[in-house]
Q: What sequence folds into this?
């Protein structure tokens, strides 16, 4: 089974590049190849001008990686000790390493945990410590694999702000970010590649990607909750639709991407057929998620289409 | 997509749940024990390790008897047989304790097993069954090696089967109880490799007359040996097989029935102590939040 | 956020820093979890004492008790190589640290060297406590007329042994639970052939010519000749040595070079294989 197939991407210096894709799309495989952890079965990959197969050491001097939802390091060491350990693998003098650790921990509001053992940290704090470890080496290129996975709203916001600040401070810094969160990709990335089943489906700025379906209307329809949505399938003029149950309000949210606005009448007519009634109707501008749904054929939450 | 939330009411009795837990964990233990390689390598592994362990003693005995030391064959039988059956202590006892560290730090499943309504004790006992099977295989192979390659005089007809079977059953029960005590301690300790493997069994190795008669120990050592059930278990195994029995001056005056009685009583006492230690370890681990700690370094 | 530039360290300095960096958690770890003192020093002594009593029961000459004590002390290093270095690679993979080591611009041997150095601390405590108990409890007396030779034998045994451990580590990088079983398999059989509890010359006196070849074959494991050499140094004048001391030292030097060389190449080879097959980061095997 091929995890990646015919992937052709160029990421420019100074760019914050996003990879969007459902679970198993091949995002982590791509990162592993670029981080020198996995060899491609065929084809060529270059990182900062160096070949991932032959010039690994030149690449390793300049990159780092942070994976979300992962605990790395040794539970018995304190946060500072753990990060110091990894700084030594990059030859950073202890004094400078400690200064960097303190600086980054302050940035990520982790300084009060400097001397706590890693095993006592919560998920969010562990992830922040993991971020400090990755950024402490001041890499030219950093790979962030789902950096906000499983984090609460505040922690995610803090990490996103940190990423923006990091990128704005030095124009040559480059970042490759994978994420599940469309808003995150929309907010942070200069360019985004949408990847599914190991293939790149589209690659452009979020604005341009949205323009891809700009001509298409997006209709959001909130109806009284229904268990069965088959009445909305195969309506002519509808390219894609997703649905989501909202238990709190007792409604079902339907979202249609339309090829032809004339389909609105058929959609509205289908509501009574499904045994429900309309609560609200809204026509919106496309989001990155709409682009994703259009290209991949389903939403990231794997709802039926 | 509709989600069927109408689960059937399912509330088995505690006894059924414990039996199910036992069966399922025994299956899991066997999977872990055996599925890391193909059956041929597994068999080689299971044979090479115990036979090498026994051969160390064979060479030691051979070297010393060649240079004029003690060359009583009964001494050799004593060492070989006790060392062979001692595998149960080393493997089963350590195996039980290791489950805690493995589940807690490696597979990180301990917390999930813990919060289930099944009894953790049933789970532990189930998991150790596979160790018991593998060790029995090793003991049989090693004894066969001794009989056919080293001329140990044992035949199926010379064995006192009733005594042997009763003693084996009590002994294994006792070893599993020790394992549970060790598991209780493991709840609280960091994951150490190697040291614990050799160590805990070392107490019994030294004091229970495994590779030398208890009477070789200093007086305080003999006194300690005489309160350990494993001492009597091994002596009774030797007597039931009629190999190296009567060599240990510390036990020569104790009749088989008395040995058996002491074994039963000391097993009961140690089982109670083991259960207390297990329970205490379990309680303290929960008080201190150690159920899901990771301690690698 | 200001990142001060620092002079780029040389390859050597960078790797030395990495060695100390990886050694640190080992040394700190053992001090933070003091239960190791019990597990790593007191308990193993019991097993060693068991073998001492075997010799007592067999009415063996006094030096045999010393041989067991020396073997018991060296067990600490063998265990360290097997469990805390080679098999540790498997644990590092499971914990998610291996990939962080692999993307760092350093030699893999430095990470392993760090583990070895850190592990040596507790191993040495264990070895010295075994010798101490041997002298105080069992009254062994050791003499050292040629400390230089003893030091040479010990140092080259360690280099060759840890080199061999690094070579094993390359296998463990890819393996799952096989690693645990492999380390376990290398316990009793190696105790047997390397003569942890008896001089390997015993094979010769027991089996004649085939015995010589068993001992010679076992000499590929550095601890075999290391143990034999150390016993010869500490019990001079006995005729239990397998080969002349100078020859044992020479072989150990050759083994040191051989294993470091093999370790370097096998680590590179296995890493490459792992990268090709995607097994370097595969967990829960």
A:
């Amino acid at each position: 089974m091929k995890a990646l197939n015919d992937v052709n991407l160029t990421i420019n210096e100074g760019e914050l590049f996003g990879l969007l894709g459902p679970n198993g799309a091949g995002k982590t495989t791509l990162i592993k190849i670029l981080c020198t952890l996995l060899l491609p079965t065929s084809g060529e990959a270059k990182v900062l001008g160096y070949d991932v197969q032959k010039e690994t050491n030149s690449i390793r001097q300049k990159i780092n990686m942070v994976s979300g939802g992962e605990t790395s390091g040794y539970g018995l060491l304190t946060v500072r000790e753990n990060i110091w350990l990894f700084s030594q693998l990059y030859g950073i003098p202890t004094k400078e390493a400690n200064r960097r650790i303190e600086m980054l921990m302050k940035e990520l509001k982790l300084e009060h945990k400097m001397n706590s053992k890693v095993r006592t940290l919560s998920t969010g704090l562990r992830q922040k410590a993991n971020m400090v470890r990755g950024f402490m080496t001041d890499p030219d290129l950093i790979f962030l694999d789902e950096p906000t996975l499983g984090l609460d709203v505040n922690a995610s916001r803090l990490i996103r702000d940190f990423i923006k600040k990091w990128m704005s401070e030095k124009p040559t810094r480059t970042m490759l970010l994978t994420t599940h969160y469309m808003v995150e990709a929309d907010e942070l990335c200069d360019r985004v590649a949408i990847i599914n089943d190991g293939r790149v489906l589209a690659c452009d700025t979020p604005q341009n990607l949205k323009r891809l379906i700009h001509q298409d209307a997006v209709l959001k329809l909130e109806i009284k909750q229904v268990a069965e949505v088959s009445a909305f399938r195969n309506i002519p003029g509808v390219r894609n639709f997703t649905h989501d149950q909202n238990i709190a309000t007792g409604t079902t949210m339907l979202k249609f991407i339309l090829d032809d606005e004339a389909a609105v009448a058929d959609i509205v007519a289908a509501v009574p057929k499904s045994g429900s009634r309309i609560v609200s109707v809204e026509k919106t501008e496309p989001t990155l998620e709409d682009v994703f749904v259009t290209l991949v054929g389903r939403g990231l939450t794997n709802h039926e289409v | 997509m509709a989600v069927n939330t109408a689960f059937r009411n399912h509330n088995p009795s505690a006894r059924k749940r414990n039996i199910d837990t036992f069966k399922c964990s025994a299956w899991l233990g066997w999977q872990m024990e055996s599925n890391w390689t193909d059956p041929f390598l597994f068999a080689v592994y299971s044979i090479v390790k115990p036979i090498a362990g026994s051969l160390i003693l064979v060479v030691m005995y051979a070297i010393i008897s060649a240079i004029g030391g003690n060359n009583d064959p009964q001494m050799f039988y004593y060492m070989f047989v006790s060392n062979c059956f001692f595998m149960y202590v080393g493997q089963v006892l350590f195996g039980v304790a290791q489950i805690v560290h493995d589940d807690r730090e490696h597979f990180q499943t301990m917390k999930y097993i813990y919060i289930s309504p099944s009894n953790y004790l049933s789970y532990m006992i189930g998991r150790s069954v596979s160790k018991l099977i593998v060790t029995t295989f090793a003991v049989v192979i090693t004894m066969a090696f001794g009989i056919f390659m080293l001329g140990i005089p044992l035949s199926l007809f010379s064995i006192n089967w009733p005594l042997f079977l009763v003693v084996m059953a009590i002994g294994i029960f006792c070893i599993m109880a020790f394992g549970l005590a060790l598991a209780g301690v493991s709840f609280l300790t960091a994951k150490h490799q190697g040291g614990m493997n050799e160590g805990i069994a070392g107490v019994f190795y030294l004091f229970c007359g495994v590779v030398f008669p208890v009477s070789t120990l200093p007086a305080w050592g003999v006194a300690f040996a005489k309160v350990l059930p494993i001492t009597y278990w091994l002596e009774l195994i030797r007597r039931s097989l009629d190999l190296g029995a009567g060599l240990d001056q510390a036990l020569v005056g104790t009749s088989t029935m008395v040995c058996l009685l002491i074994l039963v009583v000391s097993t009961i006492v140690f089982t109670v102590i083991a259960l207390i230690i297990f329970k205490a370890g379990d309680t303290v681990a929960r008080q201190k939040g150690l159920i899901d700690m990771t301690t690698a370094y | 956020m200001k990142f001060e530039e620092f002079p780029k360290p040389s390859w050597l300095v960078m790797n030395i820093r990495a060695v100390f960096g990886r050694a640190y958690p080992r040394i700190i770890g053992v001090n933070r979890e003091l239960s190791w003192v019990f597990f790593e020093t007191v308990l193993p002594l019991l097993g060693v004492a068991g073998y001492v009593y075997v010799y007592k029961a067999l009415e063996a000459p006094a030096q045999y008790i010393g041989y067991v004590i020396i073997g018991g002390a060296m067990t600490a290093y063998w265990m360290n190589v097997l469990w805390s270095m080679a098999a540790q690679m498997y644990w590092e993979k499971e914990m998610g640290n291996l990939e962080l080591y692999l993307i760092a611009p350093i030699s893999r041997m430095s990470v392993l060297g760090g583990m070895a150095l850190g592990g040596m601390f507790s191993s040495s405590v264990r070895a010295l406590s075994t010798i101490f108990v041997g002298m105080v409890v069992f009254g062994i007396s050791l003499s050292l007329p040629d400390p230089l030779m003893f030091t040479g034998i010990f140092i080259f045994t360690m280099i060759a042994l840890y080199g061999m451990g690094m070579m094993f580590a390359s296998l463990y990088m890819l393996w799952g639970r096989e690693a645990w079983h492999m380390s376990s398999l290398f316990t009793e059989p190696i105790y047997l052939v390397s003569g942890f509890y008896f001089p390997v010359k015993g094979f010769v006196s027991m089996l004649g010519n085939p015995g010589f070849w068993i001992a010679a074959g076992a000499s590929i494991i550095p601890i075999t000749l290391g143990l034999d050499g150390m016993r010869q140094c500490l019990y001079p004048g006995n005729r239990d040595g397998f080969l002349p001391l100078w020859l044992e030292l020479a072989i150990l030097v050759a083994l040191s070079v051989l294993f470091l060389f093999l370790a370097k190449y096998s680590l590179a080879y296995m890493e490459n294989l792992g990268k090709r097959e995607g097994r370097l980061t595969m967990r829960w095997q």
